[in-house]
Amino acid sequence: MSTFETFVEIEAWQKARQLSKAMYEISSTAPFARDFSLKDQIRRASVSVMSNIAEGYERGGTKEFLQFLSMAKGSIGEVRSLLYVARDQGYIDERVFLDLTARGTEISRMISGLMAYLHRCGFKGVKFK
What confidence tier does 106 reach under pLDDT thresholds 50, 70, 90? Predict the structure, then answer.
């Protein structure tokens, strides 16, 4: 793993962005779109994943980055849990459910890998220019 110049270069952030886009798309279709509470919750949780990665990176310190990565990991768990609710309510079919949960699992693993990397390499944070 190499160092990053911006959070946009972090693959976990890129994948989280794609998943967030997918969450907006699937929650815009009926009947999902009419379940305002679930729609709002899954959208906020998916945006939270990419936002926490970005915010943690921009804070510039390893401890804070790790803390925000931990929150991002929690949010991706929330997204995966909410996908079960969407499937159980019939808002998404099994194929969509399996695809999105697999993507969520991949993002979770990437975040875990990034956290382990930061612990191992002694990352000291962003150097602002």
Answer: very high
